[in-house]
Hints:
The complex is a heterodimer. Chain A is α/β, with parallel strands linked by helices. Chain A has 13 helices and 8 strands. The relative contact order of chain A is 0.17. The interface of A and B includes residues 149, 194, 197, 265 and 267 of A.
Amino acid sequence: MARIVVITSGKGGVGKTTTSAAIATGLALRGHKTAVIDFDVGLRNLDLIMGCERRVVYDFVNVINGDANLKQALIRDKRAENLHILPASQTRDKDALTQDGVERVLNELSEDFEYIICDSPAGIERGALMAAYFADEAIVVTNPEVSSVRDSDRILGILASKTRQVEQGGEPIQGRLLLTRYAAERAARGEMLSIEDVGEILAIDLLGVIPESQAVLNASNAGLPVVLDEESDAGQAYQDAVDRFLGEERPLRFVDVPKKGFFGRLFGS
Amino acid sequence: MGIFDYFRQPRQKSASVAKERLQIIVARERAARGGPDYLPAMQQELLQVIRKYVKVDDDAVQMNVDREGDCEVLELNITLPDDRG
C-alpha cells in the first residue's frame, strides 16, 4: 500500500510544483519507489520543472479514460531510478478528473509504489479537491505573506472535512507546514511574518522552511528539481524537509540572520 | 540598519500588522466554516433589518453556530455604535 501525500496551498505561485518535484525526487533518491502526479488539468507544468516535458506521450486523463495504460503514461525519471512522473492533461475539460477514475489510478499505483505525491493545482476547484480527497497526509506550502497564509488556512479547513478518510468516519488527515520563500533578514527586521507568526496562525506542525533562493529559478530554468542542487541553501533545506518527512530529526537551517559587527550595523543595509 | 534609522520614530512593523489582520480574518473564517450554507445570506438580511433602526457597520453582526451535545446553538452578536442615533 502506498502512502498518498498531497502538496497543496490554495494560493498559486507559492511553490507547490517546485516542492512536489523536490520531495518526490528526495524520496526516490533515498530508495523509496515514488510516483508524482500533476493534478493541474489544463495547465501542465510538473513535466517542465522535472525536465521531462519532451517525453510526455500520454497523460493522467488518457489513463482515466482508458486511452492508455499506466505503464505507457508513466515517465521514468532519468536522474532517480525509483521515480516516475504522471503528467497532467492539457485538456480544457475541467470535469475530466472523475473521482472513480482518480481512485482507480491511485489504486493501481499503490500496488507498485511506496509514495504517491499529488501536486495539487491552486484554488479550491475540482482538481484541487481530487488531489486532496484520497490523501493520507498533506504538505501545505505557504509563503510568509498574508494572502498565502489565509488561503492555506482555507485549504486546512477543506482537508479537515473533504477527504475520503473523514467521509469514511476516520480522523482528519494531518497537514504539515512547509514555509517557502522565507527571508530571515526581513523577518528579523519585522518586515515579514516570522516562522513563529505563521505557525501560530495556522496551528500545524512545521515540516520545513525553504529560504528565498536564486537556486529555485536556476533549477526550474534547467528542468532540474532544486533538491538535486546540493550546494544551494534551498536544495539543502528541501533535503532536510525530506528527512523530517521520513521521521528523522533535523535542525532548521537558513533561518538565522548572520550577526553584523558594529560598523556593519551602522553603515550596512 | 543605517545611521539615520537611529533617529527615526519607532512605528509598528509591517509584519505585526500582517499578523494581527490575519489572526482576525482567520478566526472569523474558521467560525463560519462548517456552518449551514444559509448563514451568510441570513447575516446580510439581519444586517439590513438592523440598519432600518440603527446605523451600524458591515461587520457589526457576528454569527456563530456552536454544537453542545445534540443541541445546536446559534449565537448572534450585534455591536451597536457608541453614539446611538
